Amino acid sequence: MQNWFHIIPKNTGLSSYVWIIFCILPFYFIFRSSSTLEIIFGILMFLLFFVSYRLSFLSKGWPVYVWVSIEMAISIVMTLLFGYVYFALFLAFFIGNIQNKVGFITLYVVHLVSTIATISIVFFKQSEMMLSQFPFIIISLIGVILLPLTMYNRIKHEKLEGQLEDANERISRLMIIEERQRIARDLHDTLGQKLSLIGLKSDLAGKLIYINRDAAKTEINDIHQTARTALKEVREMVSDMRGVKIKDEIAHIKQMLEAANIEFIIEGDPESITTPLFVENVLSMCLKESVTNVVKHSQASSCSVAIEQSLNEVVIMIHDNGIGIPAQEDFFTGHGLQGMRERLEFVNGSLEIESSNGTVLTIRVPNFIQQTKQEGLV
Q1: Are 88 and 144 within 8 A, CB to CB?
Q2: Poorest-pLDDT segment among 70-79, 179-188, 259-268, 340-349
Q3: DSSP three-state, residue 9
């Protein structure tokens, strides 16, 4: 469960030297007894306690509770016979390390009740001895109450931080993979077709140069124009890789729609969106692709973009008054929408398309990714 050096509790507000004193202090109480048998018995209890304590750190599953039960019994015996209550602090520290909720609560309640009951009994039997160390007993009781709760919450918090860090690392790795796939798709869509066209036209120009120089010249001009167009698209793709915020993308699509003589209506405040940068980048890319489809395919005269962020999700709706989607067409097979859907699935988002007085495209992305928490036994 933990290394041997965790037997000396750390990060509890007490120095390691104080805990070492608590380890040695039992001998003072033991040798104060007049009976040799009691001294031998006390030393055996002391050794048995720390052997059990060591084994409880090494064990997993039900043996942990067996060793803790033995330690509780030794702590009670040491308190009743010698008035030594400080083993309860060691137990309190270990109980706080148990992350199984039921096991933690059970041991915490049993330990607290047994410690209070034992101290009360000893107070009635050996009140003078207990009064001499009354302030330390009160401190021990406070430790028995607070130390397990503090350790339990601290370990749980550290565990959640570790899970979050692992999740962020996985997301980063997945982002790299997804970005590579996106670059591959964009390169194929952007350069593949145009390079094929350049190759065909080059072959054609090579044949026409001996037959029809004017036609060959036209083909060479087409090659030149196609190459310039490909270069422009590559530059735009590289610009997209740098990441664009939604408010910047709104400005770009406004210029795009104005150039296409399409009225642009914006609802909501793009600057109010608070999402991680990579999520906002995905939303911006999907928004750009959606409006590009409106310009290319919709034949619309107006386009509205509504942006809203609730407690649970970010919603972006793109509505145009164009021709809508033909009933026989599977719209997700083209127009870049399959790539949009894949990007959104990566951030647990969704894409919905409805043909109603034009086309309504709804993008939804949750504000967080819920993870299943698993608690071990200890």
Answers
A1: yes
A2: 179-188
A3: coil
Q: Are 263 and 303 in contact (CB under 8 A)?
A: yes
Quick: pLDDT tens for 45-93. 888 887 888 888 777 888 888 888 888 888 888 888 777 787 888 888 8
Query: Residues 282-322: pLDDT tens digits?
Result: 888 888 888 888 888 888 899 999 999 888 889 999 999 98
Dihedral (CA of 225, 226, 231, 232) sign: positive
Q: What is the amino acid identity at position 135?
A: P
| Tokens 């931080």 found at | 161
> Residue 352: helix, strand or coil by DSSP?
strand
- Interatomic CA distance for residues 204 and 202, integer angstroms: 5
Q: What are phi and psi of 360, to 5 degrees?
A: -115, 120
**320 sits in which H/E element:** strand 313-320
**Secondary structure element (H or E) that encloses residue 340, with its range:** helix 337-346
* C-alpha to C-alpha distance for 101 and 246, rounded to whole angstroms: 44
